[in-house]
Specification:
The complex is a heterodimer of chains A (253) and B (72).
Chain A: H1 3-34, H2 36-64, H3 67-93, H4 102-114, H5 127-155, H6 159-179, H7 188-210, H8 220-240, H9 245-252
Helix pairs in contact in A: 1-2, 1-4, 1-5, 1-6, 1-7, 2-5, 3-5, 3-7, 3-8, 5-6, 7-8
Chain B: H1 2-15, H2 20-39, H3 45-68
Helix pairs in contact in B: 2-3
């Protein structure tokens, strides 16, 4: 296994885990309030749609677009996407943006879903539950699909990204089944921060290669780039972190 | 028309979100590094570019966060 294979698998696993946690919160709300049958049909339909996108788009893009162009475009998209994740994670760490609160989202969704009329007969599909579950899995899943496709096209191998994504989905859903409540203890922002570092590192490497840059140390340069981004972003967080309201009151007294 | 607009808005929000300067900066940085690699003279241009590119990336990140930071 190469460095790129392992980091691709890990990045995909962590990114997918975060997205599945967010989707699980909404699916849980739909299942608990409106019935699990319709919620699971929505989940299954969205999963099939996502799988179809990966299987259709990946090979098609590689066939239709020249490799050089593909590498630049995909590397650039990955770098932009990675920087967005990293930027938001830093903003959450420093208090500039609110942390993702799965319990609050779950409570809001449950309240909203309980106010909607329930399906007429027990055997029919509850379209509200179906739509909420379908949209949750599709929208969160699109980010995973994006990472799988961009990694796969750049690395020339979709397998590590697909394995990471599927493994994360299985593990997170299994845990959610076991605890039967929103997975609020998952350190989402930490995971998003790590994934942001990885995607930014990979994106920088591949976009650079795409425009003709020969990185010293070849694939090992990816690790060097990640270390650099980790150090810089860590310094930013330490510099910009706002004290909690209690600490501010104490220091101003 | 509404659906077409919605489709493009979704992808704009997905990729660029509220930080358009990140996307624009990355594209400009790549163009700059490309021109440097292919048109600038000097044997150490590869090494310079390999250092410059990640530095530009972190500068973009820092600028983007600084833009939204509220004064204390």
């Amino acid at each position: 296994m190469t460095t790129a294979f392992l980091i691709g698998l890990l990045s995909s696993f962590l990114a997918s885990a975060v997205e599945v946690v967010e989707a699980v919160t909404l699916v849980l709300a739909a299942g608990v309030t409106r019935g699990w049958r319709s919620a699971w049909i929505g989940v299954g339909t969205a999963t099939l749609a996502l799988a179809a996108i990966v299987l259709a788009l990946g090979p098609t893009l590689r066939t239709v677009i020249p490799l050089d162009v593909l590498r630049i475009v995909v590397g650039t998209l990955l770098l932009i996407f990675g920087l967005q994740w990293l930027r938001k994670a830093i903003m959450r760490y420093t208090g500039m943006k609110a942390l993702h609160d799965e319990e609050r989202i779950y409570a809001t969704e449950v309240q909203q879903l309980r106010s909607e009329p329930v399906a007429a007969s027990p055997g029919s599909i509850d379209w509200t539950a179906f739509t909420v579950s379908f949209k949750a899995v599709l929208l969160e899943g699109l980010e995973v699909v994006f990472i799988v496709i961009t990694f796969g096209l750049s690395a020339g191998d979709m397998l590590p990204a697909i394995i990471g994504a599927v493994a994360a989905a299985i593990i997170v859903v299994a845990i959610a089944f076991a605890v039967h409540e929103p997975l609020s203890r998952v350190p989402e922002n930490s995971l998003k921060y790590v994934v942001g570092i990885m995607l930014t590192g990979f994106g920088t490497f591949w976009a650079g290669e795409g425009i003709g840059l020969e990185w010293p140390g070849q694939d090992l340069a990816i690790l060097g780039l990640m270390a650099f981004f980790l150090l810089w972003s860590g310094a930013l967080i330490m510099l910009l972190r706002r004290p909690a309201q209690g600490e501010e009151a104490a220091t101003s007294a | 028309m509404k659906y077409i607009r919605g489709f493009f808005l979704f992808w704009y929000d997905f990729l660029i979100g509220d930080a358009w300067e990140v996307a624009a900066g990355v594209v400009l940085a790549l163009i700059f590094i490309y021109l440097l690699l292919h048109y600038a003279a000097g044997t150490s241009i590869e090494v310079t570019s390999a250092i410059l590119f990640p530095v530009i990336v972190v500068a973009l990140l820092t600028f983007s966060i600084w833009r939204v930071r509220k004064p204390r």
